Amino acid sequence: MFEFIHKMGSPPHFWRLSGALAPWLGWASLLLIVAGLIGGMVLAPEDYQQKDAFRIIYFHVPSAWLSMFAYVIMATAAAIGLVWRIKLAHSVAAACAPIGASFTFLALATGSIWGKPMWGTWWVWDARLTSELVLLFLYFGYMALRAAIDDETRADRASALLAIIGVINIPIIKYSVEWWNTLHQPATISKLGKPSMDSAMLMPLLIMWLGFTCYFVAVLLIRTRAEILARERNKKWLRDVLGSG
Amino acid sequence: MEWPGLATAFWLQLVRDLRLAFRHIGQAANPLMFFVMVTTLFPLALSPAPEQLASIAPGVIWVSALLASLLAAESLFRQDVEDGTMEQLALSPQPLSILLLAKTTAHWLMTGLPLVIMAPIVGHALFLAPEAVPATMLALLLATPVLSLAGAVMAALTVGLRRGGGLLSLLILPIVMPVLIFGARATDLAVQGLDTAGVIYLLSAVLLLAVSLAPAGMAAAMRISLD
How far, in whole angstroms, is CA A236 from its chain's centroid? Predict the structure, then answer.
C-alpha cells in the first residue's frame, strides 16, 4: 500500500502511467458521450410536462456532479500534499481547479437556460443555486491565491489550506435541496433501486455521467502532466523522457 | 523554566494588542467610519423616502457590516509580520493558535463591537423598525466575531503578499455568505414581528464552530505564510 503511494508520488512514474491512461480515457469519454447524446437527444421519450426542454438534464446533471466531485478530488489531493508533502499531489490539486470551475460554470449556465422556460426566470436565489455559485467563487479564490504567490512551495501549501477550508461548502450544496426545500428539485437518480425517472431517460443520463467523468479524469491527467512539465523542467528524467536537451 | 499558563498568555496578548490599538485609535476607527459612511450612501443613491429605506435597511446594515469587516481584516496581522513580532510569537512555547485567537479577539473588540453598538443609530437613520433593533444587535453580536475569525484565517493566508487586498475579499466573501444570509434574515424576521430564535440559534452554532476551528486554521495559515 505504502509502496503504491510512494510510487504514485514520483513524477516519472506518474508521467508514464498518465501518458498510457489518458488516451484510453479520452476515447472512452468520447464514445460514451456520443452514445449518451444519441440516447438522450434522439431515443429518450419526451417528458410529458417539460417536452424536449428536459433534455438539458444530460448536460446539467453530469456537470453539477463533476463540479462537486472535482472539488472533493482537489481538496483531497491538497490535503495529501499538505500532510505528506507530496509535490505531485499539489500538481493534481492545481490541475483540478480550472476544470472544476468550468464544470461549475457549465452547471450554472445549463441550469439557467433550463430555468428560463421552466421557472420563468434565468436565476433564483435558491439554496442550491446560491451554494453552487459560492462553489464557483471558491474555485476562483483558490486560483487567485495560487496565482498571487510567487514561491511555488508556499503557493502549494497556502492554496491547499484554502481548498480544505472550502470543503465545508460541499455538504451544504449536496443537502441544500433537502434542508431548505426551495425551488430546485431534489436528486433524481441517487435513490438507488427506485429512480424517479423512466429507464429510457435514465440510461442515457448514466452513460453521460460516466462519459463526463472519464472526460474529467482524462483532462485532469493531461493538465497534471502539463503541471509536471512546468515544475520539473530542469530535471534530468524529463529530458531523458522527452529525448532532447 | 516555568512558562505562564494558556489563560495568562491569551490575556497578555489581548492587552498588548488593545494597548497598541488605542495608541493608533484613528486606524482602529476606520472600519467604523467606513460602516457609517457606506450606510449613508444608500439614502443618497436610492431615495430618502422613509418607507423605501425601511424596506432595504436590514440588507444595507448587514452588507455594510460585512464590507467594514473586510476592510478591517486587511490590517489584522500585517504590522506584526512586517516588524518580526509574528515570528517571535510563532517561536514562543505558547500555542500560536491561542495567541492568534487573542489577537483576533482584540481586533474584534476594536472593529467588530463598535459596529454592534453603532447599529441602532444607523438603523434609526435608515428608518428601521425600532422593534427590530434588539434582534439586529444580538445577531450582529454573534455574527461579527465570525466575520473577524474568518477574516483572520484568510488574512493569515495572504499576509505576506504584496497585492493581497483584493484577493483577501475574494477569499473571505464566499465563506462568510451564510453569516450574511442568517443575519439579514434575523433582522428581516424581527421587522415582520416574527420569532427570530431559530436564526439566532443558527448564528450561535456558526459562531461556536468558528471559535473552535478558526484558531487552528489561522495558526496553520500563519506558519505557511512565515515559511
Answer: 33
Is A83 an 8 Å CB contact of chain B?
no
B44, B158, B168 from B64: Cα distances, Å: 15, 23, 17
Going residue by residue through chain A, which has 245 residues, state the pLDDT in tens, using 9 for 90 and above: 667 767 777 888 888 888 889 999 999 999 999 998 888 888 777 776 667 777 888 889 899 999 999 999 999 999 999 888 888 999 999 999 999 999 999 999 998 888 888 777 777 777 788 888 989 999 999 999 998 888 888 899 999 999 999 888 888 777 776 666 556 766 655 544 555 667 777 888 899 999 999 999 999 999 999 999 988 888 888 888 887 54
Chain B: give the shortest CA distance to residue A13, in Å.
29
- CA B30, chain centre distance (Å): 13
Pairwise CB contact (< 8 Å): B171 & A145: yes
Predicted TM-score of the model (pTM): 0.87
Query: Going by C-beta distance under 8 Å and a sequence separation of 6 or more, which residues neighbour residue B49?
Result: none
Closest partner CB to B175 (pick from A140, A153, A165): A165
ipTM of this model?
0.84
Report yes or no: B153 at the A interface, CB cutoff 8 Å: yes
- In angstroms, the separation between the Cα of residue A216 and the nearest Cα of chain B is 25
Burial bucket for residue A42 (CB in 10 Å: 0-12, 13-18, 19+) = exposed
CA distance to partner chain A, nearest, from residue B119 (Å): 27
- A46: region left, alpha or beta (phi > 0 left; psi from -120 to 50 alpha): beta
C-alpha cell at B13: 496578548
Asked if B173 reaches chain A (Cβ–Cβ under 8 Å), the answer is yes
